[in-house]
């Protein structure tokens, strides 16, 4: 059975100073993980979370060796002051409000961000100490968004998943985050990024595109997995003796009163003031409901030391007092308000006694209270869920009554409708949702996510940092016949806004001339046309072979002429393709067409990202439809769409090259950054007659086994390659 390391900001226990010991903590993740069945999920679990260094070391050690149910705990010790700056100054003052669309509450500090980076590094390093290569690493939530990137950089073979338990905001909001690139660069390295809701995933994809200027991750790298609860626990709790005692106690006071229940943590995202205003509207607009309906609102204290939360608490209590004063009588108190948490049996009793549960969050990652309420209901007159459309649970609970919490008048009307909802409909709706939650419980949620994580990607390519610069296999070059196939744009030379501006830089020119002087065969395989390659290389005095238009043309230095390797005439398809490209160019600002002979390219690097990407998707489909049964293919690259003759293919060119060689080489190295280079990688990695090393430049998913993080790292790689080849020459001589 596999081992899954659950990584979160905190362990599922909280230190209690009063008893000088730990007690179980609450929260959505804790509730979900508590019910995991190792046999069902196929994993044993260990939970790594943070404890601060102000807790006695003997208590920390006690936790380290404790096993609770199916979980082993592994505390990660962080200095208390550092934790404060990381958690309060960045997590709570930047990420939390921004991701919940409360932009006016965001407070940036440089110290907060530095502390966030430091704590994420501490957590990642602790994971690396205990993790085995075959472990599954499941990182949870916004406090640890830099951890996936650190782990995958240092241990690429680890299976790393990330799950966000809060909303991911629209790209318009996310772009306001100063550290947006650092966070995205980390998250896209995870093997699987999970969200509660499809809209959150779409916002994430859009942010990748708009912030990083890259195509979104493939579908299997992203997923929607609404979290669930331990349904059997809440069903058993509903039938427990302790719960029945609370039901008996409350029934005496409730009598014929209908209850609208609210259970919310004190937070500005919970829409508490809007909910109270809607209840006031209900009593004002529908006087017949007075003295028949009561709101039971439980507010669980949170961040009590923060001024913003203190103000919110005061505002809530002022509203409660005002409504009770306006509509109350000696025999009737409209709102029964509790500012403290209640024990599980008491909460279960309130769930069963309340005719309506009101969840009015303005933004909420999921909201598991609504799920707990549903599972706790009995057949006899079950309750109704009034659920904000801005919760993740809204897309899961199909029979809940939907509300827009900002529309106070409409919410009041929906309250009245929920209170008087017919019993037949109540039973049918609750029964359908209970059946769903019976099958889709927390274990099923984890099982599906872990299954997808395991199958999400093949073994990741090796990522090497520029400062490290050398792959271990470079030591194998001594005494071997070596051929190197290398792309130009984005590999040897930086990509430019305009293709005509691309130039090799002097240090790279010097390296290439020295490499071409070794016994290794160095071949440029580019999508560029013949004229451009002549200018860049022949004019600079290089003597190595060139392949233009993805291998449609080949230049042999010995023969000093270009050879056409493609049999198909592009005129058969080119005219219709050009007509389509011209139409899209006229619609897309900054886009342009490049004619390469056996290839035609549509560039949209300088166009508005979102709009151009939308049109690029449509263009790809239209070209593929047009070219059905034609000797041409459509390729998507980095902000380009290219149509090439079917044999103008880097993989086909490399295969033909190796077949024409008098002696098969011992080692073949291929390096490139674009999707067209994948054909080259794919062909080479399928060969067993030569040893091949394929290297992807960039962070995108690739068939190549190895990678360099960006074009800037290529120069260091080429320097190390030259050093290895020169050592080879020395050893031979």
Indicate the proportion of strand residues: 15-25%
Biggest sheet descriptor: 9 strands, mixed
Unreliable sequence segments = none
Query: How many domains comprise the coordinates?
Result: 4
- The CATH architecture of the largest domain can be given as 3-Layer(aba) Sandwich
Q: Give the overall form.
A: elongated
Indicate the percent of residues in helices. 40-55%
Mean pLDDT: 87
What layout of secondary structure does this protein have?
Blueprint: E1 2-10, E2 13-16, E3 21-24, H1 28-34, H2 38-41, E4 43-52, H3 57-64, E5 67-68, E6 71-78, H4 80-99, H5 110-130, E7 136-140, H6 147-154, E8 159-163, H7 171-174, H8 180-187, E9 192-195, H9 198-212, E10 222-224, H10 231-238, H11 241-254, E11 258-265, H12 272-285, E12 293-300, H13 307-327, E13 335-338, H14 344-353, E14 356-359, H15 369-376, E15 384-388, E16 401-403, H16 408-419, H17 423-439, H18 442-456, E17 462-463, E18 482-486, H19 506-516, E19 521-525, H20 530-536, E20 546-548, E21 553-556, E22 561-564, H21 571-587, E23 592-595, E24 599-603, H22 609-626, E25 632-637, E26 640-645, H23 650-660, E27 667-672, H24 676-685, E28 691-697, E29 706-708, H25 714-732
Parallel strand pairs: 1-4, 1-7, 4-6, 7-8, 8-9, 9-10, 11-12, 11-14, 12-13, 14-15, 15-16, 17-29, 18-19, 18-27, 19-20, 27-28, 28-29
Antiparallel strand pairs: 2-3, 5-6, 20-21, 21-22, 23-24, 24-26, 25-26
Helix pairs in contact: 4-5, 5-6, 8-9, 11-14, 12-13, 12-16, 19-25, 21-22, 23-24
């Amino acid at each position: 059975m596999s081992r899954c390391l659950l990584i979160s900001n905190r362990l599922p226990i909280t230190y209690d100073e009063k008893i000088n010991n730990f007690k179980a903590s609450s929260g959505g993740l804790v509730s979900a993980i508590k019910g995991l069945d190792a046999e069902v999920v196929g994993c044993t679990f260990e939970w790594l979370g943070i404890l601060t260094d102000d807790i006695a070391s003997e208590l920390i050690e006690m936790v380290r060796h404790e096993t609770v149910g199916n979980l082993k705990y592994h505390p990660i010790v962080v200095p208390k002051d550092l934790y404060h700056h990381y958690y309060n100054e960045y997590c709570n003052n930047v990420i939390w409000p921004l991701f919940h669309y409360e932009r006016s509450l965001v407070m940036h500090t440089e110290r907060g961000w530095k502390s966030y980076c430091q704590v994420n590094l501490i957590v990642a390093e602790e994971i690396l100490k205990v993790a085995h290569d075959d472990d599954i690493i499941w990182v949870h939530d916004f406090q640890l968004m830099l951890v996936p990137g650190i782990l995958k950089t240092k241990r690429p073979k680890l299976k790393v998943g990330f799950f966000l338990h809060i909303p991911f905001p629209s790209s318009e909001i996310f772009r306001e985050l100063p550290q947006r690139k650092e966070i995205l660069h980390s998250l896209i390295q995870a093997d699987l990024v999970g969200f509660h809701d499809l809209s959150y995933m779409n916002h994430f994809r859009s942010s990748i595109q708009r912030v990083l200027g890259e195509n979104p991750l493939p579908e299997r790298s992203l997923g929607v997995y609404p979290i669930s609860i331990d349904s059997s626990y809440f069903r058993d709790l509903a039938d427990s003796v302790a719960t029945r005692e609370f039901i008996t106690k409350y029934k005496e006071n409730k009598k014929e009163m209908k209850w609208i229940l609210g259970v919310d943590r004190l937070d500005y995202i919970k829409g508490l003031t809007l909910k109270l205003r809607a209840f006031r509207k209900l009593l004002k607009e529908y006087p017949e409901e007075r003295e028949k309906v009561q709101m039971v609102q439980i507010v669980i204290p949170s961040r009590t030391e923060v001024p913003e939360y203190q103000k919110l608490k005061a505002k809530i209590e002022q509203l409660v007092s005002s409504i009770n004063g306006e509509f109350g009588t000696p025999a009737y108190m409209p709102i029964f308000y509790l500012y403290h948490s209640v024990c599980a049996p008491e909460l279960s009793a309130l769930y069963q006694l309340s005719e309506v549960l009101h969840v009015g969050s303005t933004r909420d990652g999921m909201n598991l209270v609504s799920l707990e309420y549903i599972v706790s209901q009995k057949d006899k007159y079950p309750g109704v869920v009034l659920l904000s459309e801005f919760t993740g649970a809204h897309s899961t609970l199909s029979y809940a009554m939907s509300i827009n919490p900002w529309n106070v008048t409409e919410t009041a009307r929906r309250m009245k409708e929920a209170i008087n909802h017919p019993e037949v409909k109540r039973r049918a709706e609750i029964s359908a949702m209970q059946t769903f939650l019976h099958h889709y419980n927390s274990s099923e949620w984890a099982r599906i996510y872990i299954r997808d994580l395991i199958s999400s990607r093949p073994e990741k390519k090796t990522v090497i940092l520029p400062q490290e610069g050398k792959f271990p296999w470079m030591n194998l070059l001594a005494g071997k016949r070596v051929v190197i196939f290398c792309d130009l744009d984005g590999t040897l030379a930086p990509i430019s806004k305009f293709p005509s501006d691309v130039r090799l830089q002097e240090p790279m020119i010097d390296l290439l001339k020295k490499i071409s002087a070794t016994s290794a065969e160095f071949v440029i395989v580019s999508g560029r046309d013949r004229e451009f390659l002549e200018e860049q290389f022949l004019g600079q005095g290089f003597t190595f072979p060139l392949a233009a238009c993805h291998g449609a043309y080949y230049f042999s230095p010995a023969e000093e002429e270009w050879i056409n390797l493609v049999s198909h005439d592009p005129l058969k398809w080119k005219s219709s393709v050009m007509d389509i490209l011209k139409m899209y160019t006229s619609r897309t600002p900054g886009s342009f067409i490049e004619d390469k002979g056996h290839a035609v390219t549509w560039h949209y690097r300088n166009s508005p990202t979102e709009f151009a990407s939308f049109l690029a998707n449509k263009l790809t489909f239209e070209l593929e439809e047009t070219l059905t049964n034609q000797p041409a293919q459509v390729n998507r690259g980095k902000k380009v769409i290219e149509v090439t003759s079917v044999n103008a293919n880097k993989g086909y060119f490399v295969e033909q090259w190796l077949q024409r060689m008098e002696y098969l080489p011992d080692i073949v190295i291929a390096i490139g950054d674009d999707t067209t280079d994948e054909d080259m990688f794919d062909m080479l990695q399928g060969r067993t007659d030569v040893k091949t090393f394929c290297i992807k430049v960039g962070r995108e998913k690739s068939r190549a086994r190895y990678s360099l993080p960006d074009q800037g790292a290529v120069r260091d790689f080429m320097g190390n390659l030259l050093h290895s080849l020169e050592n080879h020459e020395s050893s031979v001589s």
